[in-house]
Structure formats: C-alpha cells, structure tokens
Amino acid sequence: xxxxxxxxxxxxxxxxxxxxxxxxxxxxxxxxxxxxxxxxxxxxxxxxxxxxxxxxxxxxxxxxxxxxxxxxxxxxxxxxxxxxxxxx
Length: 88
Description:
34% strand; Alpha-Beta Plaits
C-alpha cells in the first residue's frame, strides 16, 4: 500500500478532488499554507494499492482549473510506503 500526499493550490483542489472521487479514490483534505508567499494550499492524502499510484498521479496532473497557467508548477506529490493500514 502507498500513501500519496499531494499539496496543491486552493483554487485547483476542488476539481482534483472531484476527479479522484469520480474514480472512487478516497481523499482526505487538509487546509495548509504555502511557505514564501503564505498562499492558501490544500494537502490531500490518498491511500492506494501500489498499482494505482500512476493513475492517481495522472488524475491529479490532468485536473487543474482552467485558470491555471501552463508551465507553472501546480502540485507537489510525495509517494510513501505504508507498512500498516487499519480502519477502526
């Protein structure tokens, strides 16, 4: 299992989360603040099986709002190994 942490601008998060939910991925959304300019950011945590990591990354990459500037960095993505997963 993998944990994907995607940090994106607030204006892009709704469309990305909608696209992930449409593909039946579960997403936990956390409000966060960017570093230098202190802009509003959203941190998304998505737990998936290893074979679905590339689909999640592609979904994030292909679902920015239309106001996004081409060639600009929109999201930072981390993929972490998960040793144990429990739902209580």
